[in-house]
């Protein structure tokens, strides 16, 4: 039998011929007489930045074939995945950008659905979040094609099916022309991301929230798009304070002063982007520090919450949070009502808007 296969296809096609006849259902492919009709996954591009779309095409199917496409990645032992159900078009093709997913992790037409809908795979610990730790390496996303519409995570799905086709995609936060420089300047701790091409470039400080530590993925991506970005840790990292209650706004003043005078940064001021607690600090930096000319608030309130904040010898008071007012909703919780008491919004927002107008004059 082996000799017969060799005589028909040659040694280089033995594995492909066996795969076609044994692993691929006949109703699934258009033909198995030629190797060109074996289902194949085409990814364009195969190595891409995280903020760019990926075009995923599958060819060589039978018209109307039901298929499941699965995505999977493993990061530092954490496993995430998603899947979607498709029906091949009249040409025996599936393009995730033009054909709707009929079920699975998401429904509808969405080119990036197999990526944003990823969740922790079964067996992972509760509360797991996908967050890139080492931005100098890409996410390696594995894409596999399965016959039929199945739920690969269901205990009732029976024996795990062998993929009909597989491929990998590399998704990057940090471009090849960006340099990562550890920062230990004075009290400052973090990482500076600088484009390697001659500058100067706009400078940005990047802050995250109550998880603490050093989070770098957004800074790396912004630098890949032409910014000099300081990913700034401010507690629970190296020799920095252990808790939020011990931080001082003067630390961020030092960061603003240092970055605004960096030789790779365009003179005239910097921006700050912050998420959650980092967004609160970003707004305070925009109010108090003249070096800061623009602020981006991501998922943060417009006032200081929970903890009072030291500013040298002064104390900036926080708005009291009444946790009894938390409202449970279908997809999470609402905490807006927790901060209703004690907020003089008219005074605060007038001051913030005035400073915002001043920032815009300098951009």
Automatic annotation (TrEMBL):
SUPFAM superfamilies: alpha/beta-Hydrolases. GO terms for biological process: acyl-CoA metabolic process; fatty acid metabolic process. GO terms for molecular function: fatty acyl-CoA hydrolase activity. Residues 247-335 form the BAAT/Acyl-CoA thioester hydrolase C-terminal domain. It comes from the Eukaryota. Residues 51-185 form the Acyl-CoA thioester hydrolase/bile acid-CoA amino acid N-acetyltransferase domain. InterPro entries: AB_hydrolase_fold (IPR029058), Acyl-CoA_thioEstase_long-chain (IPR016662), BAAT_C (IPR014940), Thio_Ohase/aa_AcTrfase (IPR006862), Thio_Ohase/BAAT_N (IPR042490). Belongs to the C/M/P thioester hydrolase family. This is Acyl-coenzyme A thioesterase 4 isoform X2. The gene is LOC106169629.
